[in-house]
Design goal:
The chain is an alpha/beta fold. The chain has helices at residues 2-38, 47-57, 71-78, 84-93, 137-151; strands spanning 43-44, 60-66, 94-100, 117-121, 127-132. Helices cover 53% and strands 18% of the residues.
Length: 153
């Protein structure tokens, strides 16, 4: 009887240890997801909603126009626009909008002639900078410098 109690107590401790470890891994997972979310861009998909959100947040809009199978668009989105330094700079002043060229979900006056095409817009939709093509991180910082100058004029 004593051996049975000892075995049951041991099994109970093992289960508690397992549950503690499971909870710990779950908490670590949540922390990692939260950190990743803070290091990435949340892309709006609708022009009108992006305008409203930008006005509410008192920010401008960075609009990325791309095509589904455009390798330079993918490089821009997944390399340059995933750089921590770029994200920090962009998050300060911009709401992010990503559309596909053929979606017809953005104003016709913004004619993307090659891809990717990035427009910097006021929160009322007025264009103040157009950046075409793929740019690496260092070069894109230069474009952000230009956008900041134009934004503050």
């Amino acid at each position: 009887m004593k051996a049975l109690k000892k075995t049951l107590l041991h099994n109970h401790k093992v289960k508690l240890l397992f549950l503690d470890l499971l909870l710990l891994f779950f908490l670590l997972f949540l922390i990692i997801i939260n950190i990743k979310a803070e290091e990435s861009i949340f892309w709006q998909k609708n022009y009108e909603e992006a305008l409203l959100f930008a006005q509410k947040e008192k920010k401008d809009i960075m609009l990325l126009v791309s095509k589904p199978h455009c390798r330079w668009c993918k490089k821009m989105k997944f390399i340059t626009l995933e750089d921590k330094g770029i994200i920090i700079r962009l998050r300060k002043n911009y709401v992010f909008l990503k559309v596909m060229r053929d979606d017809n979900t953005y104003p016709k006056r913004l004619k993307a002639t090659f891809f990717p095409m990035i427009y910097f817009l006021t929160n009322r939709g007025k264009k103040y900078l157009k950046v075409g093509g793929y740019w690496g991180v260092n070069d894109f910082h230069s474009w952000l410098d230009e956008a900041d100058k134009l934004r503050n004029n």
